[in-house]
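Thread title: Can someone regenerate the structure for this chain?

I was given the following input by a collaborator and told the matching structure tokens would be attached. They weren't. Posting the sequence so someone can regenerate them.
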Amino acid sequence: MKILVLNGPNINMLGIREPHIYGKKTYDDLKNLILDYAKKKNVEVAFFQSNHEGDLIDAIQRAYFDKTDAIVFNPAAYTHTSIAIADALKGTGIPTVEVHISDLSKREDFRKVSFIRDYVISTVSGKGLDGYNDAIDLILRHFGK
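Best answer:
Regenerated them for you:
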């Protein structure tokens, strides 16, 4: 099983950006957490993070052509603004789990709107960095593993 862990804007600033919301662990800590979990689950993971919408779309399209099985995706602020990213997910049809570190239901009203929600198999929100590992489990269940 090959999973792309895709992260949008400002996720590279974990540990620095609003630690009262996102915690004090860094992006490298997040990657190590996921790598350790994926190894236990016998899953191959690749990581991509960008602050640029087009780069995220390119990564989704590359995942399609590279025969990636699934995507764990934290689109960050693009969740609420990018129809183009939603179209990329819809167009490729790659099973995707939407992940948010914070609980969006307890944040600003605009954060409650997700343009990608209709094109994902599930959403994990408010579980901190562990939500990424929950997303891997959801993908494995989706594939009957």
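The first strand starts at residue 2 and ends at 7.
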